[in-house]
Amino acid sequence: MTQTIVAGLEPPYYTAVFTSVRPDHPEGYGETLDRMKELVQDVPGFLGYESARTPGGVGITVAYFRDLEALNAWRDHAEHRAAKKHGREHWYERYCVHIGRVEQSYGFERDDRDD
C-alpha cells in the first residue's frame, strides 16, 4: 500500500484504475509486484500511482500517465503482459480496469505548522 498520494499533476492526463479481488498474500505476488513497480518507472509518460487494499482482499491501484501512448506502452509491455496472464491464472479471483482522462484535478493538505 502506498503511503503518499499523487498530487500536483497538470491536466489533462490519464488514469488506469485497477480494482481486484485476491487473497492477502498469494505466493510470488510480492516479488512480481516489486518488479512491475520497477518496470513502470521506465515508461516515458508514467506519472505515479496510488494503491490500497482491504483486509478482505479488495484492492485498488490508480496509475497516472501523461497520455494514452504512455498508458498503452505499459499495457503492452511484455513483462507486464506476462504478469497479468500469471495473475489471472494464479492470484486474482476477479479484476476490472477503468481508463479515464482527467480534465480537472485539485486537492487539500492540512498545514499544521506553528507560524
From TrEMBL:
It comes from the Bacteria. The keyword Glycosyltransferase does not apply. The keyword Oxidoreductase applies. Residues 13-99 form the ABM domain. Keywords: Monooxygenase, Oxidoreductase. Its EC number is 1.14.-.-. It is an enzyme of class 1 (oxidoreductase). InterPro entries: ABM_dom, Dimeric_a/b-barrel, Jasmonate_Hydroxylase-like. GO terms for molecular function: monooxygenase activity. Pfam families: ABM. PANTHER family: ABM DOMAIN-CONTAINING PROTEIN, BLL5343 PROTEIN. This is Antibiotic biosynthesis monooxygenase. The lineage of its organism: Bacteria, Bacillati, Actinomycetota, Actinomycetes, Kitasatosporales.
